[in-house]
Amino acid sequence: MNPEQLLYAKSHEWVHVEEAGVKQVATVGISAFAVEALTDLVFIELPRTGRPVTPQESFCEIESVKAVSDIYAPVAGEVVQVNDKLADHLELFSDDPYGEGWICKIEITDPAGLKALMDYEAYQKMCAEEAQ
Amino acid sequence: MSTLARTPLHDWHSANNGRMVDFAGWSMPVQYGSIVAEHHATRRAAGLFDISHMGRIDIHGEGAQDLLECLLTRRVSDMRPGQIRYSLMCNAEGGVLDDVLAYRASEEGAPGGGSPLFQGPMHLVVNAGNRAKLIDWITDRQVEFAARIEDLTTQTAMIAVQGPKAIGIVQAMADRPIDGLKNYTGMAAKVDGVDCYASRTGYTGEDGVELICASPEAPALWEKLHAAVVAAGGSAVGLAARDTLRLEAAMPLFGHELSEEITPSQAGLGFAVNLKGREFIGSEAIAQSGEEAHPTRVGLVLDGKRSPRQGYPVMAGDAQVGVVTSGGYSPTLDRPIAMAYVGPTMHAVGTGLEVDLRGQRLHATVVELPFYRRPSSSK
């Protein structure tokens, strides 16, 4: 996926929205900036399919050598698919954060929530400020 | 705008990919690249650490020894020239103010004990976060002992080289046989032509050397040491891997295993208290607390991949029986480990417990400390 065409949450999740019939489905991952900041990942607790999520709710935990970090749901909906490969292949996060390193797909129940997300340019600006 | 203190090596860290964080008011590198790689580099070859943030205090005057005798839980009057002793400093209630290294000058009677870096016969190295508190604490008592303390922290730098190849690396640059130093001893030596105080001490569970030198000379010395460490298969190491190394070696850390609310024996540091025939600040309280059953520091090894962190509850059935003080992934053992305080009936090796990781219970077994002990052949 092209990072320039994705949406981003303040907490560093990326979102790619696809139309699936009448529904919208969001693929969710974490940005290369976030992966770089976490470093030395040792474990991920993936969400279960069927789980309802609300924006900014911690629905997934990722553990690095340093600390445990929450991953927050960027949109409201229900988890419909999970990338089970990640559990044993955490290197996918650093090798391909916007492709093979996707975490899950969420069927969106409230498309209005997408408006709260940033585009690539705004997100890059935020990261540059955070890196200061 | 940053108001953080900077070590003389700050520019090097920034220029070499060091991720800088606030640590006890200092801007320090937490890592340069992979924490696990830095950890393994230290265990397998050598790690280079900037530890200039630690407090270095010179103690001069006739009463220097008596001052420390009153402040420290271990005797200093029987220390030989060049000897270094791990000790605790306690308050009147027996709570731990800090754990410190007390140094006796290497050449008795010589100015600065044979080192141009010091004037007095005794020195202390203390934790960065406790430096201001300890300086106030000692200053309040220095007059009655005809002693005077001088804080050398910003005038000097401190660099640790740790790992199986550390001694060889530093020896190759030294003008004196520092490889003959016994553990917990030190001497004045020139390293790459720089006046240093070299000590066979460290905080990683490895053999190694810690060097104190004047601040202006530190960057050039660091560059030379770094080149030698890299050539030997090692690397510079940040605070994160320093923490995983010290956790595996089960060394207590103030703010985790040690605090003013914990007595030395609770921390399993009875060896660092010498009550016999002595009086020091806290000795009465420590002597009286000796008989009570109290929580004890233990090591835990966990099943699974999730790491326990400071503050996580330790459970036996439905009852909380303890709390994690330090925890994380052990790169050497490749599994999660923790130090914890648990109740007096829960500390036997082999005891099965659980740790509550944010709502998820994981099985944990009490194991003997330290988690890692270096092979004696590498000494």
TrEMBL record, chain A:
Family note: Belongs to the GcvH family.
Record Pfam families: GCV_H
Modification N6-lipoyllysine occurs at: K66
Known function: The glycine cleavage system catalyzes the degradation of glycine. The H protein shuttles the methylamine group of glycine from the P protein to the T protein.
Lipoyl-binding domain sequence ranges: 25-107
Underlying gene: gcvH
GO cellular component, one term: cytosol
Entries under HAMAP family matching the protein: GcvH
Cofactor requirement: (R)-lipoate
Protein's UniProt name: Glycine cleavage system H protein
Cofactor binding note from Swiss-Prot or TrEMBL: Binds 1 lipoyl cofactor covalently.
PANTHER family, A to Z: GLYCINE CLEAVAGE SYSTEM H PROTEIN, GLYCINE CLEAVAGE SYSTEM H PROTEIN-RELATED
Keywords: Lipoyl
Any Gene Ontology biological process: glycine decarboxylation via glycine cleavage system
InterPro entries cross-referenced by the UniProt entry: 2-oxoA_DH_lipoyl-BS, Biotin_lipoyl, GCV_H, GCV_H/Fam206, GCV_H_sub, Single_hybrid_motif
Oligomer and partners: The glycine cleavage system is composed of four proteins: P, T, L and H.
TrEMBL record, chain B:
Binding-site list for substrate: E210
Family annotation (SUPFAM superfamilies): Aminomethyltransferase beta-barrel domain, Folate-binding domain
Keyword Ligase part of the UniProt annotation: no
BP terms from Gene Ontology: glycine decarboxylation via glycine cleavage system
Pfam families: GCV_T, GCV_T_C
Record-listed E.C. numbers: 2.1.2.10
Keywords: Aminotransferase, Transferase
Protein name stated in the entry: Aminomethyltransferase
Species for this entry: Pirellulimonas nuda
Upper taxonomic lineage: Bacteria, Pseudomonadati, Planctomycetota, Planctomycetia, Pirellulales
